[in-house]
Amino acid sequence: MEKQVKEKNELWEWTKALLIAFAIAAIIRYFLFTPIAVDGESMMPTLENGDRMIVNKIGYKISEPERFDIVVFHAPEQKNYIKRVIGLPGDTLEYKNDQLYINGEPIDEPYLDAYKSQITEGTLTEDFTLKDIDVKLDVIPEGYVFVMGDNRRYSKDSRHIGLVDQKEIIGNTSLIFWPFSDIKIVK
Questions:
Q1: 174 a catalytic residue
Q2: Residue 31 — pLDDT band, cuts 50, 70, 90?
Q3: Mean pLDDT of 66-76
Q4: In whole numbers, what is the pLDDT of the chain averaged over residues?
Q5: Annotated catalytic, 181?
Q6: Which of 161, 150, 159, 169 is nearest to 49 (CA)?
Q7: Catalytic residue (choose from 57, 63, 83, 174)
Q8: Catalytic pick from 3, 6, 8, 42?
Q9: Nearest-5° Cα angle at 169, 80 to 31
Q10: Rounded to an integer, what distance in angstroms lies between the CA atom of residue 139 and that of residue 141?
């Protein structure tokens, strides 16, 4: 009889430990961090199709997106996109001769240098202004950001889907954890 009670207590202890572990894992995944797979080539060469990354879901609960952050957001097609923040609220934005201008000032994009050197014809980024995206826009309004993929010629981004509401941003990401040979922090 005493042996049965001891076995039941041990089984109950293991069950409690497993339930607590699953609850903690669910809380971490739902509220703090979640994995995501890069789907497509819109962020090449920075991110490759199939890269697995960790999304920090709490960062933007306590702060705002910063220029050049890589973010994951809910896109209009009921799909999550991974893009780079280019324009912030209050910014004017223009591309001219493959040069980014924010509020009239030229801005360097060092993460594109390797890609630009491979271009043999034309520019990586076509010329545009915010007015080309939406004729009513002079500046990016509060609560929105302008995002672009690093593979500018083949990226469906704010030039096509419009500005991204900051409420739709799931979080930012910079850690590739798979494939194992490519583990790194990207900028």
A1: no
A2: low
A3: 90
A4: 83
A5: no
A6: 150
A7: 83
A8: 42
A9: 95
A10: 6
